[in-house]
Amino acid sequence: MVAGPLVVFAQLNALAKDAGLLYFGTAVSPSDSSDSAYYKLENDIKNFGQYTPDNAQKWDAIEPSRGRFSYGQADSIVSRALGNKMLMRCHTLVWYSQLPGWVSSGSWTKDTMTAVMQSHISNVMGHFQGKCYAWDVVNEALEDDGSYRNNPFLKALGDSYFALSFKFAAAADPSAKLYYNDYNLEYFPVKADGAVRIAKLVQAAGAPIHGVGLQAHMTVGRTPSRENLTWTLNKYVALGLDVAYTELDVRIKNLPSNSSSLQAQAKEYEAMVGSCLDVPRCVGITVWGFGDSHSWIPQTFPGAGDSCLYDKNSKPKPAFSSVSALLASASGKRAPWNTAASTVMVTTTKPAAATPTA
After folding, report:
1. 63 is catalytic
2. Cβ 318 vs Cβ 266: under 8 Å
3. Is 140 a catalytic residue?
4. What is the structure's pLDDT at 335?
5. Is a pLDDT exceeding 70 seen at residue 159?
6. H-run or E-run covering 291
7. Which of 62, 150, 168, 205 could be stapled to 121 by a disulfide with Cβ–Cβ 3.0 to 4.6 Å?
């Protein structure tokens, strides 16, 4: 058993960097300041080295009416991150959900949709130029069967909207890392292959794409093995891309949680983090909120919850102990991030016993 001080006092971002990752981060919201204990943990760079705005940079928040941009909430998060010397993963530009009505209900031609996308991307990325380490350029464009999700962009432009989005993004902020981001890539091989298809389309069009973000919204008892997760990550590394877990949580399906379900959750968090450590081009890990009192899960999946590393009182759970111990044990075993990508070994043969279920 790991000694108490290592588990209780270890800080995740410091441990992650020692283990060769670029960051261990969290999603944040302006309302987090109302919880003083949570907010204090969130603002310590030893705990978290990267922020992702949960909603403040989504289309409905940023451009609620055409050509009118509202940056206040997003600016507050970005300013806080930079003041804390943290990285920003900015999120998101082209997504089927949380669109204002003027986009979702508009009658678009190829030309008018192209103009709207270019305007939105260039204005938003231009506003934050140089402040975002990475952007989720296109988000959740796939159904679980690997087909393209119906949305206004696909309807007007077909699959050309993928490359256009990345071209506009690269022009707006050439320094930002540009990602495709989606959920359930860890569960469904056909969907994971769909993300490969999108990345190849973007590359074939001559547009820059730097990474694939796997959201990693998992459920206790259903998380794939560490070996299988590593295999999935390496699908994208084989294309010359970085990977990252961008919205990690592991929900317990039936509440209340108990010692057994919390220990199972701890092992599955360990598998997720371990798979990132196993892949030299896995940049880092972002949890989608680190405390159960700030989780999105109970509202979206009634009856489920307790999905985070900390409990409702911002106290560490067994999952925190497992993750911190794993990161501590990996210290110095992986090249620091700035050299990791130059010595990549990729395994593309599927492990024999890896068959994830959703």
Report:
1. no
2. yes
3. yes
4. 83
5. yes
6. none
7. 168
Mean pLDDT of the chain, nearest integer:
92
Q: Which region, left, alpha or beta, applies to residue 289 given φ > 0 means left and ψ of -120 to 50 means alpha?
A: left
Closest of 75, 85, 113, 98 to residue 23, by C-alpha? 85
pLDDT of residue 4: 40
Residue 68: partners with Cβ closer than 8 Å, 6 or more residues away: none
Task: Identify whether the C-beta of residue 215 lies closer than 8 Å to the C-beta of residue 246.
Answer: yes
Which pLDDT band holds residue 340 (cuts at 50, 70, 90)? very low
Distance (Å, whole) CA 355 – CA 240: 25
Q: Which two tokens stand for residue 191?
A: 């969907």
User: Which token pair is 78?
Assistant: 């970005």
pLDDT, tens digit, for every residue of 63-111? 999 999 999 999 999 999 999 999 999 999 999 999 999 999 999 999 9
What is the rounded average pLDDT of the residues 165-186?
98
Please identify which of the residues 42, 247, 268, 270 carries the catalytic annotation: 247
- Find the helix or strand (DSSP H, E) in which 176 lies: none
pTM of the entire structure? Answer: 0.93
| Identity at 152, one-letter amino acid code | P
Q: Active-site residue among 42, 140, 186, 268?
A: 140
Q: Looking at the chain, which runs of residues are DSSP E strands? A: 23-28, 50-53, 87-95, 134-139, 177-182, 211-214, 217-219, 242-251, 282-287
Which pLDDT belongs to residue 312?
95
Residue that is written with structure tokens 């804390």 in the block: 84
Q: How confident is the model at residue 10 (pLDDT cuts 50, 70, 90)?
A: low
Tokens standing for residue 333: 């075993």
The residue whose two tokens read 């409702």 is: 312
Written as six digits, the tokens of 269 are 């968090």
The label of the residue with tokens 């464009």 reads 141
